[in-house]
Specification:
The structure is a single chain. The protein is globular, with a radius of gyration of 30 Å. It has 3 domains: 4-187, Nucleic acid-binding proteins (OB fold (Dihydrolipoamide Acetyltransferase, E2P), Beta Barrel); 262-461, Rossmann fold (3-Layer(aba) Sandwich); 471-507 and 542-658, Rossmann fold (3-Layer(aba) Sandwich). The strands form 4 sheets. The protein has a 7-stranded parallel β-sheet, with helices on both faces. Strands 15-20-19-16-18-17 form a 6-stranded parallel β-sheet, with helices on both faces. The protein has a 5-stranded mixed β-barrel with strand order 2-3-4-6-5. By secondary structure, the chain is α/β, with parallel strands linked by helices. The structure holds adenosine-5'-diphosphate and magnesium ion. Residues 272-275, 278, 301, 303-309, 441, 465-466, 600, 602, 629 line the site of adenosine-5'-diphosphate.
Length: 742
């Protein structure tokens, strides 16, 4: 079935305009443009308050022309046209070189849209390379003056949609295109089934598109928005419900807990009691494991809440039941760390065939990208023969040649870096689909979990193991109080004298680095967002560890043993440094975010993060989770050059103010666009969700989920071709996002 929404824009708008829309905004079809919703509406009488404009921003303002002057240029031939705009109180100036003819358009008293980048020149705000459209201009210029006048008249009382735009394609150009397309649109197929539309009293898709782009009142726009947001939530929930139902139909080998095996032996030597939360989650997992369809569970819990122990116990249960387990970590450092801590926790239980090994011991094997050919061959053999009970590794475990004798359980640490596709690859590695447990330390509000991980059951560890000390966090303003920075280094030396250890974290590696190194290490995403958001002018270069390390080592930290760890070191070197630090042969570790996740050295009590504003909220929270893991309280200092009152500084203060991960993930979410929340890889301007706000639209999402489950269970999706198509499109988009990312 063809649909007007699938038509290429070039057919409606012509070649040039279509190209500009595609190049600037990634819009190719009529549907793409129709789904490019206004960001907000300007009221006709309303002027943009200049005081709200930030330097460096690309803005569109509605303003009146206050003054125009043409001056000859002194040193060069030509002229300069200077225009001063006003919002009623303040002023903003525009400058054009050799375009004196514009004086005709820009006469004092006229009102228009003006777009450009805000800069400061001698303390005054300017728009550079401005583009504009006078609000009543179309009447004068239209070829078909009557029709145009009619449209403007119709439009006059209405709200003016403001679109996200690019320098080449200002908001009003987008608006013109939208109007042209809307005029030609008469039939669109609606992904929402008629029964649902009727039940909720929603407008049809066509009406909603008209109302959101050209509303008469804000109420109309709101009603349209609700319908369109519901539609997004609904299609997404249908995809997730289908995925869940598909998973339920898969057959897995049940791995019920048996007494008298590795798990029992492990429990007997566990030096602590499981918390109630750990017990609860364990019983959820055990019941999943004994079912004949694959477990598909997300385990979320604060850093240090004891997820790893829970996962290890699940693995031992599966080994007892005759299966193998794979543990996937996002980075090599973390894989190595897991390997060390799991072999040490298991002790003789991991020493199969070795002297001193327990009789029923298993073998734990590490495989990362940097294994040499011999190590790799032997690991692959251990997996294939079933010798290895636990395989630990990075993405290398996803390789084509990796095969298991009987893969029963896959544990993925730090879920957000693995996509659905990668989960599928893993699932295909067993003879039957293995059970799956994904762990994340970034707490996710419920609706976000429903939206992003809607195909997973969720378990949460909310309490920290008994006896855990708090982590105190302070913001240190380096420019305002340089003495406090000196004091921080002293404090590290004092901690070391007490027998404790410390981390110093910086955003960059430094040295001769490539572009990609700058966005370094494990989770570049947070940082990239952060930096992209910062206005160009503010973008100083972040401190690099290869620059600060020599200064610290020869200066304030000259009396302690310091190691330097970053992602560019060869992996055996990284491993050695981590091991030395773990064993106390190093007092201080200067590192990049390689230590962000999972690194567990209970004796480390202090962390100093330099240029902390370069890190995202959840990243900072993860980082500080590295200290205070033992019996001593942790201290984390966030050093920054940011001024008080800036949004970066506020972000740091929010991190300092609370240890509640859920609270912080809200702060984080509120500062990001939804695309970033959902998609690990929403690099482009388009994300899957355009209107839906996962925090604000909680009710809508729940409603959509109920409807989606019903329609999937009744097997009615295929009966609605437009819905089936929307779903196919969404899945395809999601796949390509993950592929881009991987
Ligand atoms: P997570 O993976 O959630 O960050 P870990 O499983 O690494 O947390 O646990 C953090 C630390 O707490 C480890 O040193 C672990 O041995 C310890 N631990 C885990 N569970 C308990 C418990 N119930 N009581 C005391 N200590 C625990
Ligand atoms: Mg962990």
């Amino acid at each position: 079935m063809s649909d007007q929404l699938d038509e290429r824009l070039v057919k409606v708008l012509g070649d040039r305009t279509a190209k500009a829309l595609e190049k600037g905004l990634g819009l190719r079809t009529v549907g793409d443009l129709m789904r490019h919703y206004p960001r907000r509406y300007a009221e006709r009488g309303e002027l943009t308050n200049f005081a709200s404009l930030n330097e460096g921003e690309l803005v569109t303002v509605v303003a009146d022309v206050a003054k125009v002057a043409v001056r000859p240029l002194r040193n060069r031939r030509g002229s300069m046209l200077e225009v001063v705009l006003t919002d009623g109180t303040g002023f903003l100036s525009l400058t054009f070189f050799n375009q004196a003819w514009r004086e005709r358009d820009l006469s004092p008293g006229r009102r228009g849209f003006f777009a450009g980048r805000v800069t400061l020149f001698r303390g005054k705000r300017q728009l550079t390379h401005p583009d504009y459209e006078m609000l009543d201009a179309s009447i004068l210029e239209a070829e078909d003056a009557t029709a145009e006048r009619e449209r403007v008249a119709q439009f006059a009382g209405a709200l003016l949609p403001v679109y996200s735009a690019t320098a080449k394609l200002p908001s009003w150009r987008v608006a013109q295109c939208v109007r042209t397309v809307l005029d030609n649109l008469d039939e669109v197929s609606d992904p929402l089934p008629p029964a649902i539309i009727e039940k909720h009293g929603y407008p049809s898709l066509l009406d909603a598109l008209h109302a959101i782009h050209l509303p008469n009142t804000l109420g109309d726009a709101k009603h349209a928005r609700e319908r369109l947001a519901f539609e997004e939530a609904f299609t997404l929930q249908v995809v997730l419900a289908q995925r869940r139902s598909k998973l339920r139909s898969l057959v897995a080998i049940p791995r019920s807990v048996r007494g008298g095996g590795l798990l029992a032996a492990f429990d007997a030597k566990l030096p602590f009691k499981l918390t109630n939360g750990q017990k609860e989650v364990t019983s959820e997992i055990e019941s999943d494991l004994s079912a004949s369809h694959p477990m598909h569970r997300l385990l979320q819990g604060e850093v240090g809440s004891g997820k790893t122990v829970v996962a290890l116990r699940a693995m031992l249960a599966v080994i007892d039941a005759g299966g193998q387990c794979a543990l996937l970590a996002p980075t090599e450092v973390l894989a190595q760390q897991h390997f060390r801590s799991i072999t040490s926790m298991l002790g003789d239980l991991a020493m199969k065939g070795m002297m001193g090994g327990a009789p029923n011991a298993t073998k734990v094997v590490l495989l990362t990208g940097s294994a040499n050919a011999g190590q790799r061959r032997s690991a692959l053999l251990d997996f294939q023969s079933g010798e290895a009970g636990i395989a630990i590794g990075t993405h290398a475990l996803l390789g084509d040649q990796v095969e298991f004798a009987d893969l029963g359980l896959v544990v993925i640490d730090e879920q957000h870096r693995f996509g659905v596709e990668q989960r599928d690859v893993l699932r295909a590695k067993g003879s039957a689909p293995p059970h799956l447990l994904v762990m994340t330390a970034t707490p996710i509000p419920r609706t976000v979990a429903m939206t992003i991980f809607g195909d997973l059951d969720v378990s949460t560890l909310s309490e920290l193991p008994h006896g855990r000390e708090a982590i105190e966090t302070h913001v240190v303003a380096a420019l305002e109080k340089p003495a406090f920075v000196t004091r921080a280094w002293q404090r590290i030396v004092e901690e070391v004298k007490e027998g404790r250890q410390a981390y110093i974290v910086a955003p960059r590696i430094g040295g001769e680095e490539s572009e990609s190194d700058e966005l370094f290490e494990a989770s570049a995403d947070d940082l990239a967002d952060q930096i992209d958001d910062a206005p160009q002018e503010e973008r100083k270069k972040a401190k690099a560890i290869l620059e600060i390390a020599p200064e610290l080592i020869s200066g304030p930290l000259s009396t302690v043993r310091v190691g330097v760890l970053h992602g560019r070191l060869p992996s055996d070197r990284k491993d050695q440094i981590m091991r030395d630090f773990t064993e106390g042969l190093l007092d201080v570790l200067i590192a990049t975010t390689v230590i962000e996740v999972g690194v567990d050295v209970p004796n480390a009590t202090m962390m100093v993060i330099v240029d902390a504003e370069y890190f995202g909220v959840s990243q900072l929270h993860q980082l500080r989770g590295r200290v205070g893991r033992g019996i001593h309280a942790g201290l984390c200092l966030l050093v920054t050059d940011c001024d008080e009152g800036t949004s970066s500084r506020q972000r740091l203060e929010a991190v300092a103010a609370t240890m509640d991960g859920f609270e912080l993930s809200r702060v984080d979410l509120e500062q990001r666009s939804e695309g970033d929340v959902l998609g690990s890889a929403q690099s482009g301007s388009r994300s899957q969700l355009r209107l839906l706000r996962v925090l604000r639209d909680e009710k809508l999402i729940e409603l959509a989920k109920d409807e989606a489950v019903q329609i999937v269970e009744a097997d009615e999706v295929e009966g609605h071709p437009a819905l089936a198509r929307a779903i196919a499109e969404l899945s395809a988009k999601e796949r390509s996002d993950y592929l881009e990312k991987g």
